[in-house]
Specification:
Two copies of one chain form a homodimer. Chain A contains twelve helices and eight strands. Chain A has about 300 residues and is an alpha/beta fold. In chain A, α1 links the parallel β1 and β2. The C terminus of chain A is likely disordered. Chains A, B: Pathway: Amino-acid biosynthesis; L-tyrosine biosynthesis; (4-hydroxyphenyl)pyruvate from prephenate (NAD(+) route): step 1/1.
Chain lengths: ~300, ~300
C-alpha cells in the first residue's frame, strides 16, 4: 500500500461520516493513526467497542496530540463552538477541515478560532445514507463520491493538495469551488430535495390514522422514495436549513413558482403543457446515468 | 403447477405493464393462452420478436376470440376509446379489467361501453419502473406488490374472486376499495410525489447550462432520487393528472400549506420547530420497513 498521507487524523464527532472516515483512513492507509473524539460518553464507549480508532479516550488533548489532520464531523450548528474548544490543542502546521453540508456558515463560525500556523480548508463529501451514529459508518462510503473543497483565497496550495490526496486515497473524487457557489449548488441538489421530502411525508402524517396506514401500505407507488430521504438525521438537517437559509429560500421560491405553473396546467387541463414538461425532465435523468452518478437498472419497486 | 385461472387473457397495450402481464401470465400459469393487441405496428412487431404472446396478429377479432379475461393496459386517457373499439369483440361472460392508476375516470370512460353479460372490474397494480415499452416488462414485476380492485356495487362476486385469484397467482397481494377512495389515496402516495419530482427536476433544468451540469454532477446528494421518478412515462402521467385532477389539486393544496409552514420556520430561524418536524417523519419510514414495503438496507449513494 502507498505511504500514508497523514501521520494521524483526529476525527471530532463519530456519527455516520466521522466513523466512516475512521474506517476508511485505516482501510485505505490514508493516515498512520486514527483518533476519535465525541462529546457523548455513550458514543465514545461505542467507538471503543467497535475498535475503529487507535485513540478514543475522550480527552481532547490526547486526541489532537500529534494530529496533522483534524476533521470536524459534527452537525454544522455546533462547529464554531467545537473549533473554539479545539483551538488550544491544535498542533502548529496542522490541517483543520470539516465535512459540513454548508460552507459559508462553517467558514464564518470556524475561521475566527483557527490559530496562526494552522491551515483551515473546509470540505464537504457528498456521501451518506439515511442512518446515523458510529454503527452506521463503513469504509467504502466515499467510493466514487464527490468531495468538494472550499479553500480560502490565501490557502497554502501544498495543504490543499495534501487534503485532496487524502480524499482521493479513500475513494472520493475531488472538486474545488468557493463556499458561496457550493452553498447555491447544494441548496438545489440536496437541501431543497430534502425539504420537499420532509414536507410531503409530513403532509401524509397529518392525515388520520386510517389514511396514514394506507399511505404506508401503498407507499411503493412513489411515496416510499421520499420517506427514505425524510428519515435523515433531524439535527443535521435543522442545522443545514438554518445555516444555508438564503440559498434555500431562493431555491424554494423558484420551486414554488414552477409548481404554480404545473398546478395551473392541471386545473386548466393543459395536456400538451404537462406532456412537454414531463418529457423535458427525462433528459436530465439520462445525463445522470451517463455520468455514472446512478445506474440504469430499473427500480423494481423494492431494493434487493 | 396449479390449473390456469383463465383460458385466455387478452392484453390491450403492450407497454411495461401489459408486457409484464403477458410474461407473468405465462410464467406463473395464470392463463392457458396470452393474446396481445397494440395500436402501434412497431410495438406489435416487437411483441412478435420477443415471443411473449400466443396471438399477436394486431387484429382485434383474433386477439379477443375466446378471451375470458381482457385487460386494458393503455394510458388512462384513451381507455374509453379503446373500450368502445373492443366492445363488439368481447365474448359473453368475459371479464373486462384494466390497470389504470386512476379509477373514477376509468369507470366513467369504460362502463358505458361494456356490453350486457360482460363483467367489468377495474384494477390497479401498484408496480412499475421508470422504463416503458414491451422490452421493459418482466414476469416478476408484481411479486409482493399490491393490486387494488374497485368492483362496482353490483359486481358478480365470483368474477371479482376470479380476478383476485389471477393477480394472486402472478404474485400480487389484492385489496378492494371504492374508486373514489382509491383515487384519494393514490393522489397522496403516488400522484403528488410524481408531480413534485417532475417539478423539482424542472426547476433545475431552468438554470443555465453551467448550473445544470453541476446539478447532474452532484446529484447523489438527494436530487438523483427525484430524477428517477421524474423519468417516468410522460403520456401516462399527463393522463393521470388530467384524470385525477380534483384529488391531486386537493393534496397539492395541503402540501403547499405545509411547505409554507416549513418556509416560515426557516426564515424565522425556528430550529426547534424544524427539529420536531424532521423527527416526526422518521416514524413513517420505520412503519414502511416494518410492513415489508422497503428494506432497511442503507442506500449507499448508488444502486448495486
Amino acid at each position: 500500500m502507498a505511504e500514508p498521507i497523514f501521520a494521524r487524523v483526529a476525527l471530532v464527532g463519530a456519527g455516520l461520516i466521522g466513523s466512516s472516515l475512521a474506517r476508511a483512513a485505516r482501510d485505505f492507509g490514508a493516515a498512520r493513526a486514527v483518533a476519535i473524539l465525541d462529546a457523548s460518553p455513550d458514543v465514545m464507549a461505542r467507538v471503543r467497542d467497535l475498535g475503529i480508532a487507535d485513540e478514543a479516550s475522550g480527552d481532547p488533548a490526547a486526541a489532537l496530540k500529534g494530529a496533522d489532520l483534524v476533521i470536524i464531523c459534527t452537525p454544522v450548528g455546533v462547529c464554531g463552538a467545537v473549533a473554539e474548544q479545539l483551538a488550544a490543542y491544535l498542533e502548529p502546521g496542522a490541517l483543520l477541515s470539516d465535512v459540513g453540508s454548508v460552507k459559508e456558515s462553517v467558514v464564518a463560525q470556524v475561521a475566527p478560532h483557527v490559530p496562526p500556523g494552522v491551515h483551515f480548508i473546509p470540505a464537504h463529501p457528498i456521501a451518506g445514507t439515511e442512518f446515523s451514529g458510529p454503527d452506521a459508518g463503513f469504509s467504502t462510503l466515499f467510493q466514487n463520491r464527490w468531495c468538494i473543497l472550499t479553500p480560502p483565497g490565501d490557502a497554502d496550495p501544498a495543504a490543499v493538495d495534501r487534503l485532496a490526496r487524502f480524499w482521493t486515497r479513500i475513494g472520493a473524487r475531488v472538486e474545488t469551488m468557493s463556499p458561496e457557489h457550493h452553498d447555491r449548488v447544494l441548496a438545489l441538489t440536496s437541501h431543497l430535495p430534502h425539504l420537499i421530502a420532509y414536507n410531503i411525508v409530513g403532509t401524509a402524517d397529518d392525515f388520520g390514522e386510517d389514511t396514514r396506514s394506507e399511505v404506508i401500505k401503498f407507499s411503493a407507488s412513489g411515496f416510499r422514495d421520499f420517506t427514505r430521504i425524510a428519515a435523515s438525521d433531524p439535527t443535521m438537517w435543522r442545522d443545514i436549513f438554518l445555516s444555508n437559509r438564503e440559498a434555500v429560500l431562493e431555491m424554494l421560491g423558484r420551486f414554488n413558482e414552477d409548481l404554480s405553473v404545473l398546478q395551473r396546467m392541471i386545473r386548466r387541463g393543459d395536456g400538451q403543457g404537462l406532456h412537454d414538461f414531463f418529457s423535458r425532465t427525462r433528459a436530465i435523468r439520462r445525463s445522470i446515468i451517463e455520468q455514472g452518478q446512478d445506474t440504469a437498472a430499473p427500480d423494481f419497486g423494492r431494493r434487493k
